[in-house]
Amino acid sequence: MQEEQITQSAQGHQHEHRSDTVILPAPTPWPMVLALGLSLMITGMVTHWVISLLGLILTLRAIFGWFFDIFPHELHVAVPVQTGVMKIASTRTTREQLPVSASHRTLLPVETFSVTSGIKGGIVGGIAMIIPAALFGLIKFHSIWYAVNLLAAGGFVRWASESTAFLCQFHLEGLLAATGIHAFTSVLIGLLYGAMLPMFPRKPILTAGFVAPLLWTGLLYSALGVISPVLNARINWLWFVISQIAFGLVCGFIVNLQVKVRTPQFRSLPFAVRAGIHSDVPLTKDDEL
């Protein structure tokens, strides 16, 4: 039987491949028989040696049968192919889009603030934020050092169990730590303002003074318990929001006072567009130069 399969396979290789058929490997059951034999061999290790013997017999027979399906010639079958045009249809409806006319163009920022503008705004805004924070400490704890030490306690694990009286006292390491944390955070947010304000040119005061502070106050409110449990347990969120609004108003005002610079998107536009020239006549390369 194996010799007949080999002879049929060799004869199949001699026939020319017709255009209406596809040559595919012949189906064979030996991979499944091999998997069954291996499974029975492993199962017999925890049951009975007869199961392993049966698995060994099936494994050897599958290896022998699979080998002669490939050597000396791989068995193939000719599968007929039916050609036709398949229409692809969908029941989903497409979303209507606005027509793009010749006057339509992408809105790109043509001006933005430099990096130094954000740094300046962050520094001045950070100084302005100190005033309501110190005012809160004076009103509630009669000490301007409470807010400073509370911010520094976020980086000192040993200060987590300290009393309110301890936080109301002056500590040099607390002042240095709070100054570093506050300065670093203020500069980062100032850089964010420098990149964000050109995107909202119509209402910068509303965006910088109220929308942005309320957004990251909400983010801190939901995540501060994981970031700093000490701050989360003692922070006064009303005064924190007031401090953030003071920072946003002052930082946004300082950033808006700075001179804007042209963006790379604007500098890559043709000269006629940058100059504001409107014409229906197409420009040549000499005109653009």
UniProtKB/TrEMBL annotation:
Region of interest: Disordered: 1-23
The entry's keywords: Membrane, Transmembrane, Transmembrane helix
Polar residues compositional bias, start-end: 1-12
Stretches that traverse the bilayer: 49-68, 117-136, 143-160, 172-193, 205-231, 237-257
Keyword Membrane listed: yes
Designated name of the protein: Uncharacterized protein
Organism: Tunturiibacter empetritectus
Lineage: Bacteria, Pseudomonadati, Acidobacteriota, Terriglobia, Terriglobales
